[in-house]
Design goal:
By secondary structure, this protein is of the alpha/beta class. It has helices spanning 2-8, 14-31, 34-37, 39-46, 66-84, 86-136, 139-144, 147-154, 156-189, 191-238, 240-245, 249-301, 309-350, 411-417, 441-447, 462-467, 475-484, 488-492, 511-525, 541-555, 590-594, 599-607; strands at residues 371-382, 385-396, 400-404, 426-431, 434-435, 448-451, 529-533, 559-563, 575-580, 583-588. It has a six-stranded mixed beta sheet with strand order 6-7-8-3-9-10.
Length: 608
């Protein structure tokens, strides 16, 4: 429940909303039962129970009490009967009823608008905060969690919280006030019958609260299975080509169907309990009303009560209304239980600790001047399982260093440590002899440009993918970057040229075209340090040649770290580091390494 109150704080300043909401609710609640209170005089008037009487000389003295308003009405009611007749008294009563209904609904509307504004404000800020958290989380965390679970937290969990947040107002604000107003009216009419009703009502409340508690468990299972379903959908969309090429559609359909059945089971269990709350409370409510009819009716028939028939009918009418907010509270608590589960899941993400932190007094650096160094660097994804072991090497400015070695040697890990997607376990990485942990993350990553094996493009235009959220975009600079990347020619052949939408992950382009767009993006950024992570390994020969030519242009005058499986692409590197099991076992130029008859030469022979 603490997380629920944390959500409310997102609508700051909360006080102004709460004061306005409760003011509107109190006014609406006070006027709501007035129409039922006038049943008694109307019935007495219609059934000739009211006659011409002497009128009190002056209205009653003002006091803030029910008796004052009752006596004031009776004064004018009796005066109209005496002076103008019964029909005008009926008109007078109906006018008061219409006015009270209008005022009640007007302020009820205002209270709902205020609550909706509060809810929209809180949810908007919560959703933005959650997305900001998602953006700021380290790559390592995002690689470990299910994407469907994150999508569920940003969509369905937020939706559950949004619905439940409104229920907080009605459950703990509007409906309790209505209950107090109705209960006050019932006690005023007949405290004996009300005491009798209070004996019956708690039984109904206990049964409904028992159902609400059972719903909490079902809500947790429902959200978990929904996250799994979203993950399955995401994987299917991402891997549709592989699924179809292997002909395993039926396997994935069966897998999804199993998860869907599990979701349906949780949904049915929750639905049975949720839907049973309304009819059970309805039946229990009718039982209470029948009990009151028997008890109150017997009192009137035996002349042991001073209630008139009209008063008793008004009592029953008001009591029938008290059941509505009572049931609404039960229903609201049910929805709030689901909201609590959703809020716990959301804050599980929101409270994730960000391990990649900036030093408050970080050192500012605008350019790369001398060298990038790894000094006795070790790294482990899991404690006790080192992927890199005591690495040391230095890349002077303007040099191209290549990393080669078998899969799992730690090549990609090295490239991820430079922009601090992960932090080293031991040792330090320095740029111009400054530990990168002392640099601003924004400035550090501004110095680096990354071209990955799988091009990462977005569902947007070619132009926006190259400029990539840069302020003050230069069209000439975008075109020049595309030319350097050997992409301008094929871009001009597309339907809308630079304004062509390339689809989700660039699906409308070929592999080579996607890679050249990502290279153009790196050219446009013009970073000091380039990280090329197997940028040509998945391309055909023609595309590889074009991309290699583009990479050659990109690396001119740049400091570059190149990871390559195709060793023919790195023969001109200034230095080649050969890694195996997290250690540098060989280092030198291509010619030097070929003369050592070591792992590098064996890898070259295998590829030849």
């Amino acid at each position: 429940m603490n997380n629920y109150f944390r959500i409310i704080t997102f609508a700051k300043p909360v006080t102004q909303f709460v004061i306005l909401y409760f003011l509107f609710v109190v006014i609406a609640s006070v006027f709501k039962p007035v129409s039922f209170a006038f049943l008694s005089p109307v019935l007495d008037l219609l059934f000739q129970k009211v006659s011409v009487q002497d009128v009190v000389e002056k209205p009653p003295s003002f006091s803030f009490s029910i008796d004052y308003f009752k006596n004031l009405f009776e004064y004018y009611f009796q005066e109209i009967i005496n002076t103008k007749g019964r029909y005008h008294a009926l008109l007078f009563t109906c006018a008061i009823v219409a006015f009270s209904v209008f005022i009640s609904n007007l302020f009820s509307y205002l209270s709902r608008v205020t609550a909706d504004y509060f809810r929209a404000r809180a949810i908007k800020r919560l959703r933005t905060k959650l997305y900001e958290k998602l953006i700021s989380l380290p790559v390592g965390y995002l690689n470990q969690v299910k994407k469907g679970d994150l999508m569920a937290k940003l969509s369905t969990d937020i939706a559950e919280i949004e619905v439940a947040l409104l229920n907080v107002f009605t459950t703990f604000g509007k409906n309790p006030i209505l209950l107090i107003v109705y209960a006050t009216g019932l006690i005023y009419i007949s405290y004996k019958i009300t005491l009798f009703a209070l004996i019956l009502i708690p039984v109904s409340g206990f049964i409904i609260s028992f159902i609400a508690k059972r719903l909490k468990k079902d809500a947790l299972g429902l959200q978990s299975t929904l996250s799994y379903l979203l993950s399955a959908i995401d994987e299917t969309l991402w891997g549709s080509k592989i699924i179809k090429s292997f002909g395993v559609e039926s396997y994935f359909i069966q897998k999804f169907d199993t998860a869907s059945r599990e979701y349906a089971r949780h949904f049915r269990a929750q639905s049975r309990k949720r839907e049973s709350a309304s009819p059970i409370s309805e039946v229990l409510g009718v039982i209470v009303v029948v009990g009151i009819l028997l008890y109150g009716g017997k009192m009137i028939l035996d002349d042991t009560s001073d209630l008139s028939g009209g008063d008793f009918i008004a009592y029953i009418a008001i009591f029938s209304q008290i059941l509505t907010p009572a049931k609404a509270i039960n229903s609201g608590i049910t929805q709030i239980q689901r909201g609590i589960i959703a809020s716990n899941r959301v804050f599980e993400l929101l409270d994730q600790k960000i391990k990649i932190k900036e030093t408050p007094s970080h050192i500012s650096i605008s350019s790369f001047q001398k060298e990038l160094s790894f000094n006795n660097v070790s790294f482990a994804y899991e404690e006790g399982k080192e992927v890199l072991k005591d690495l040391s090497f230095t890349i002077p400015k303007g040099n191209v260093f290549a990393l080669v070695g078998p899969s799992g040697a730690g090549k990609s890990t090295i490239s991820d440590l430079i922009p601090r997607f992960y932090d080293v376990t031991k040792g330090e990485i320095t740029i111009d002899e400054i530990n990168i942990k002392k640099l601003s993350l924004h400035e550090l990553r501004g110095l680096t440009g990354i071209v990955t094996q799988e091009p990462i493009l977005f569902h947007d235009t070619i132009f926006n993918n190259i400029a990539f959220a840069t302020e003050s975009v230069s069209k000439e600079k975008v075109i020049e970057a595309a030319k350097v990347a050997n992409a301008h020619e094929f871009i001009m052949d597309t339907e809308n040229r630079y304004n062509t939408i390339i689809g989700d992950r660039g699906v409308k382009l070929s592999g080579g075209q996607r890679q050249r767009i990502s290279i153009a993006r790196a050219v446009y950024k013009n970073p000091d340090i380039l990280i090329l992570d197997e940028a040509t390994s998945s391309l055909d020969t023609e595309s590889e040649k074009l991309v290699q030519d583009a990479l050659g242009k990109l690396m001119q005058g740049k400091t570059a770290l190149v990871i390559a499986h195709r060793l023919s692409t790195i023969q001109n590197a200034d230095q080649i580091l050969v890694l195996d099991q997290g250690k540098i076992i060989e280092q030198g130029t291509h010619d030097e390494l070929m003369g050592k008859n070591g792992l590098y030469k064996r890898l070259q022979s295998m590829q030849a």
